[in-house]
Specification:
This protein has about 500 residues and is an alpha/beta fold. The chain has three domains: about 1-65, no CATH class; about 70-100 and about 120-315, 2-Layer Sandwich (Endonuclease, Chain A); about 330-490, Endonuclease Chain A (Endonuclease, Chain A). Helices cover about 50% and strands about 20% of the residues. It contains 20 helices and 20 strands. The strands form three sheets. It has a 16-stranded mixed sheet that branches. A two-stranded parallel sheet has the order 8-15. β16 and β17 form a beta hairpin. α2 runs antiparallel to α3 (about 55-65), α13 packs parallel to α14 and α15 crosses α20 (about 480-490). The protein is globular, with a radius of gyration of 24 Å. The termini are far apart. InterPro entries: Cardiolipin_synthase (IPR022924), CLS_N (IPR027379), PLD-like_dom (IPR025202), PLipase_D/transphosphatidylase (IPR001736). It holds the Pfam family PLDc_N. It is found in: Cell membrane.
Length: about 500
């Protein structure tokens, strides 16, 4: 025994080296076998690159972040949620599209119903709001009219000087007996700690029920859960008669971050205020998330109501998506619409990192003569995503896509698409791999000539604040910048 210990002490460097390289080789071999299974080629290549570059770091990261799915217990709960949603959605009225709408739009409606269970509903009203403070104040005014229920669900929420009126409205109606329920994404809100803590204290002080969505407790459901699986939806429903939806979070337009304030950054959002039968669909989506986080099932009368005002002229359909669904509902809808477009596509997204199928759909549309216009921000707030999305610009410009850069220091955070003069999709979903695979999102497909006129007016406002990027200008950027963009593109595929 003494001789063995003596030999080990003399040769431990050799043994550790041999052990390291043995583990290195094994991890590389296992990576090649395991990683490509049921995974997009681009994602598989990115993960394999990380593992081959440094296996002892890359492979553990893959084990933690390589599966875009919920733990088993959460998946079982999600099945209950989806079943509940489908059963209650049967109570919602079906609407028929006009005979003169294109057949591809009818196909999109059928696709959405199959993916997310929600029907197309008619006789809805909808109005845009693109001013940040005004939208908060209008939502607060609607909250103050509540008589029974207020349902709030936002990715990021915090009590600060900008949002105080919103939270005061919640407190006022709660104090007079209205049932207020609040959901906020845990990671999306807790990272803004001072205003997050102030919000929670405010809600508690007025007896308002609230829950963090997708709380970061990696092993709470019996298996490791990726911390970056998030609920990214933004919804406000008042008495089942007024619904708000779009891209805006309940926080100051600079997100209370010193770096953003120092740079003068301000987020530009687009919100839509709905009335009519569609509000019951929004309420039902909230109810499923409420059950998911609280375990409380809201009764049918609270969730699905007969709309008091059904005089609107817009047809609407809600499309939920996220890791709880089998397919990427938002991606499939976008691709269906891009391939169907005949004349015009206008896409607005703050984070544009498409998968291969969406990129091909946009390039193909431009090549076949469709006028394709993409709005993105001139500057970025997220280093990796900002540089990754820039790596797509050359191919898009060469195909004929017009890229509008929203002027700094604004961050165009709005998320919407319009196709021809037929339909708009607006909501919380970015056009990036994260929104397709990892985030719970909500999108609304809206048809109606008058609404398309309003949509184009919003696009005109953003166009007036943007400048068009030319292929000549883009080709002249520094070589080092190109290298950085392409490297970030590869890293962004690791999902």
């Amino acid at each position: 025994m003494h001789e063995l210990l003596s030999w080990l002490s003399e040769h431990y460097v050799l043994l550790l080296t041999w052990l390291y390289w043995s583990v290195d080789v094994v991890l590389r071999i296992v990576g090649v076998i395991v990683v490509p299974r049921r995974r997009r080629p681009g994602s598989a290549v990115a993960w394999l690159f990380a593992i081959m570059l440094l296996p002892v770091v890359g492979f553990p990261l893959y084990l933690m972040l390589g599966k875009a799915e919920l733990p088993r217990k959460r998946r079982e709960k999600q099945k209950i949620v989806n079943r509940l949603m489908r059963v209650r959605a049967q109570s919602l009225p079906d609407s028929e599209l006009d005979e003169d709408v294109p057949s591809w739009l009818q196909s999109a409606v059928r696709l959405n119903r199959e993916l997310g269970a929600f029907p197309l509903t008619g006789h809805n009203s909808a109005d845009f709001e693109i001013d940040y403070q005004t939208s908060l104040d209008r939502m607060a005014a609607d909250i103050r009219t509540a008589t029974s229920d207020v349902h709030v669900l936002f990715y990021t929420m915090g009590l600060d000087d900008v949002t105080r009126n919103f939270f005061d409205a919640l407190a006022e109606v709660a104090d007079r007996g209205v049932h207020v329920r609040v959901l906020y994404d845990h990671l999306g809100s807790v990272t803004h700690w001072p205003v997050y803590r102030a919000m929670r204290r405010h809600l508690d002080a007025h007896g308002i029920e609230h829950f963090p969505m997708m709380p970061v407790k990696p092993f709470s459901d019996g298996a490791f859960q990726r911390p970056d699986l998030r609920n990214h939806r933004k919804l406000l429903i008042v008495d089942g008669r007024i619904g708000w939806m779009g891209s805006q979070n309940i926080i100051a337009p600079h997100y209370d971050k010193r770096a953003n304030i120092r740079r003068g950054l301000r987020w530009q959002e687009t919100m839509v205020r709905f009335g009519g039968p569609i509000v019951s669909e929004m309420n039902l989506l909230f109810a499923t998330d409420w059950f998911y986080e609280s375990g409380q099932s809201l009764d049918r009368a609270t969730v699905v109501n007969t709309a008091p005002d059904a005089t609107g002229s817009y047809e609407c359909q809600l499309v939920p998506s996220g890791p709880g669904f089998v397919l990427e509902n938002n991606l499939l809808l976008f691709n269906q619409l891009f391939y169907s477009a005949q004349e015009r596509i206008v896409a607005v997204s703050p984070y544009f990192v498409p998968d291969e199928s969406m990129f091909s759909a946009l390039v193909t549309a431009a090549r076949r003569g469709v006028d394709v216009e993409l709005f993105v921000s001139e500057i970025g707030d997220q280093f990796l995503v900002y540089h990754a999305q820039r790596s797509y610009y050359t191919a898009l410009l060469e195909a004929g896509v017009r890229i509008q850069l929203y002027a700094a220091p604004g961050i165009l955070h709005a998320k919407h698409v319009s196709i021809d003069d037929s339909v708009t999709v607006i909501g919380s979903s970015n056009m990036d791999i994260r929104s397709f695979l990892l985030d719970m999102e909500s999108s609304m497909m809206i048809g109606g000539t008058d609404f398309m006129v309003k949509m184009h007016e919003v696009e005109d406002v953003y166009r007036s604040r943007s400048r068009e990027l030319t292929l000549e200008e883009w080709r002249g950027r520094p070589a080092l910048t190109r290298l950085l963009d392409n490297t970030c593109r590869l890293a962004s595929a690791v999902v």
